Write the structure tokens for this entry.
Amino acid sequence: DQQVKQNSPSLSVQEGRISILNCDYTNSMFDYFLWYKKYPAEGPTFLISISSIKDKNEDGRFTVFLNKSAKHLSLHIVPSQPGDSAVYFCAASEGNKLVFGAGTILRVKS
Amino acid sequence: DVKVTQSSRYLVKRTGEKVFLECVQDMDHENMFWYRQDPGLGLRLIYFSYDVKMKEKGDIPEGYSVSREKKERFSLILESASTNQTSMYLCASSFFSGMRDTQYFGPGTRLTVL
């Protein structure tokens, strides 16, 4: 049973618009959350993270929101650029383990 | 820049063969990890290591073993490869103990077992 779920396998967005990627989790012991981006033929690269004591973290065009009561987090990319097209993985940390979601393929159309 | 390299980008092996996947990092990181990535399942942790000669099982260790004789090198071993081990294998490393710290990934090895 997957503890971290990314229910949208893919998302298509027009350049300049907002991209919203969603992630749900079931384990209330998770206390740290991360987003990774992966281009084809490359390993995942760290994008942004958030601690469970916060509800928002922003880094340039990327913002992560955490709703602990709903066990939901989202990644907002504004404005979206064609170079953002990649697979995005949500991950959650419980102590010494990282649990990844299945990933969402983002396509930004120019 | 942190660099994590993996010995092969693509590998084709036959059922029953012993397979070695090598990973090397150049940033003196204590922690190293092996994941496999499968469609619809994301990245799943196979094994990790916090120090030389130390290893811990991840979520799916069955059919795999690891070796860490030197700090910079972490090897994943498939003792007897099976078709259900066909997958993308990703190695990662990080500096501090614990999983909160950013993990840096290698480019991956696409393993096909025939």
Remarks:
- The interface with chain B takes residues 2, 4, 6, 9, 32, 34, 36, 41-46, 49, 89, 91, 93, 95-103 of chain A (CB under 8 Å).
- The mean pLDDT of chain A is 94.
- DSSP finds no helices and eleven strands in chain A.
- The longest strand of chain A covers residues 86-94.
